[in-house]
Structures are given as structure tokens and as C-alpha cells.
Amino acid sequence: MKILALESSCDETAAAIVENGRTVLSSVVASQVEEHKLYGGVVPEIASRRHCEAVVPVTKKALADAGLQLSDVDAVAVTYAPGLIGALLVGVNFAKGLAMAADKPLIPVHHLRSHVAANYITSPELKPPFLCLVVSGGHTHIVHVKDYTEIRVLGQTRDDAAGEAFDKAARAMGMPYPGGIELDKTAEGGDEHAFSLPHPRVDGAPYDFSFSGLKTAVINLIHNAEQRGEELPTKDLAASYRCAVVDCLERNFLKAAEATGSTKLVIAGGVSANRLLRRRLEAACAERGWQFFRPALSLCGDNAAMVGAQAYYEFLAGHTAENDLNARPEMPMEAN
Ligand code: ATP
Ligand code: MG
Ligand code: FE
Questions:
Q1: Which of 171, 181, 186 to mutate to test the pocket of ligand 1 (most atoms within 8 A of CB)?
Q2: What is the rounded CA–CA span in Å between residue 237 and residue 175?
Q3: pTM of the full predicted structure?
């Protein structure tokens, strides 16, 4: 089954053709990041406009790269939640139009479920059940993926997402948006113990996260040093901060794995590209004899190939939509 998938939840306009949830026939991503960089973050109004401009050429290119016509695909899938409402609406309305015109089923896909599904492309042998740490720009969840479309959230962040915490600290360190990637690069070879930073816990909720105190601690360190006319060693500061964030992620994720008896651990979302997080979890799983899966770097950030992968399983579970499908800015991962 060939699915044409679309993604427009944030600042990437993407289209892809995926066969049977695992084989990517084409994948096109048009990123707006250079434009949003000017403002230090995503400007929703600009994002919607750019999606409107890009959605047709990106979709045409995905079809052309796969050597297919719209009539050759078996269904149209689209990210419909969660995300920026104006951005999501562009993809949803375009997908509805395509599905109606070509008389194909329409498959709505939850953005975070699709981040998880990026792993089905990278690791064709991966099958549920497994435990997944979803770490992205706007979300940080520990989820039990019981089956492809049966998901239980065990814990989540109470404030900032891991990606947001990385981006905001990176900004304070003078790195351009989205700074998470550069902070990660800068941290390589730095001294992780140079600065002592808090490792927040949430009382009574061992799988929940809180990053705002840690983020504020590092921002205060930088501002206080500035006032004294001092410059902190960025490499060591980035290394200490990255280490503290990863310590929290690893601590709760391993605790959840032990409590649920999970021996198959998976990471997903933009922050799953983080070098230290990958190394730490790889080592922790190897030590315990557990399996560890992570997406190819090209599939960690937003793309439509992952939407096409999850859409296949949503279709098999009977999750299709009619032409009254609407976009939703928020939606729990359990619901579909
Ligand atoms: P969401 O998926 O929650 O709706 P989003 O789609 O904007 O949010 P993603 O595209 O999944 O988020 O991920 C982007 C985030 O990943 C950014 O915050 C970015 O800084 C972060 N990120 C990317 N690479 C790395 C890295 N190597 N280390 C840390 N963070 C990273
Ligand atoms: Mg993005
Ligand atoms: Fe995302």
C-alpha cells in the first residue's frame, strides 16, 4: 500500500510516499528555519504563509521523485494534531482536497505518533510493544507503545520540553535558533562537571519531568557573569547543561523501563538526535542486555516519511477520516 503523506505542524513543509509503513519511496522537506532564525523562534503567521507557498511544489516533487501520479497512491495521510493551528490547517485542507479529488481514503496522523514511527523506517525489525522516550521541540513524554496505535503515556514534562530547554539555554549562550543542535556540538569535549546544575524531580511522579528550573539556573549563571563583566567558558557550560538534561531524561526513562519490565527502548523526536542521549542510552541498554532503537538522524526532525509510516498502521486499525476532518493544536497521544 502506497501512502502520500503530508506534514505541516510547525516550520517544515514536507511530503513523502511510503510503502507498507516501512519503505520510503520519496521524501521532501522544505524547511523555513532560516527565516524564523531572524526572530529567534517560529513566527506562526509566517509559518502558515510559507506552508501555503510550499505545499504544492513539495507534494509534486514527492510524487515525481517516486515516479508516481496521484492516481497511483492508495491513500492520503496528514498530520492533524498537535501543532500550530494555522500551520496544521494548510496541510489538513490540502490533504482533504487531494483525497476528495482523487477519491482516496484520508488518514489523520498524530504528530508525536509519527515521530515514534520514524523508527519503523530506520529499523524494519522493530515491532511493538516497547517503551519510547519522545523528546521534541514541544513535547517530552515517556510512552508505552503497546501496539502501533495503542499508546499509554506514563510520564511527561510539567513545564518546558527538552528541545525548548535546549533552545532557550542555547539562545542565552548566544547561539542562533534552534540552538539545540549547536549546543550539542559545542558540548562535545567540554567538561561536564565544570558547573554544578540542578537535576529537578517531580514529587510523587517519577516519570514526569521539569526543565524550567534547570533552564533558569543556567540563564542566571550567564546573566550574573555578564554583570560581573566575566565570560563563562561556553564549551564547559554547554557540556554541563547537556549532561544535566540528559541525566534527567535517562534517569526517568530507565526507571520506567525497570518498573514496566520493558527491555526494548526506543527514542524519537528532534532531541533524539542528541549525541550524548544516544551514547548514554546505547551504553545503558548494552549493559543490561536490552535492545535500543533510535531514528536515523535524517528522520529525527519533522518530515513526512514518518507520517506515512504511522499512517499505514492507523489505516490498518481503521482510523480514517471524512472530509470534515479538522486540525487540533493539542491532542493526547492516546487519542486518535
Ligand atoms: P513537536 O514535535 O513537539 O511538535 P517540533 O516538531 O518543533 O516540536 P522537532 O522537529 O521534533 O520539534 O525537534 C526540534 C527540536 O529538536 C528543537 O528544539 C531542536 O533544538 C532539537 N534538536 C535537534 N537536534 C538536537 C540535538 N542534536 N541536541 C539537542 N536538541 C536537538
Ligand atoms: Mg522544525
Ligand atoms: Fe516534531
A1: 181
A2: 13
A3: 0.98
Site to probe by mutation for ligand 1, drawn from 88, 112, 136 as the one with most ligand atoms within 8 Å of Cβ, is 136
pLDDT, tens only, 176-221: 999 999 999 999 999 999 999 999 999 999 999 999 999 999 999 9
Instruction: Give the ligand whose atoms come closest to the C-alpha of residue 168.
Output: 1
d(Cα 40, Cα 22) in Å, to the nearest integer? 35
pLDDT tens digits along 269-297: 999 999 999 999 999 999 999 999 999 99
Would strands 2-7 and 12-19 be described as parallel, antiparallel, or unpaired?
antiparallel
Please report, as a single letter, which amino acid is at residue 217. A
Summarize the confidence of residues 100-116 as an average pLDDT: 98
120-177 confidence digits (pLDDT tens): 999 999 999 999 999 999 999 999 999 999 999 999 999 999 999 999 999 999 999 9
Annotated binding-site ranges for substrate: 134-138, 167, 180, 184, 274
Backbone angles phi, psi at 121, to 5 degrees: -75, -50
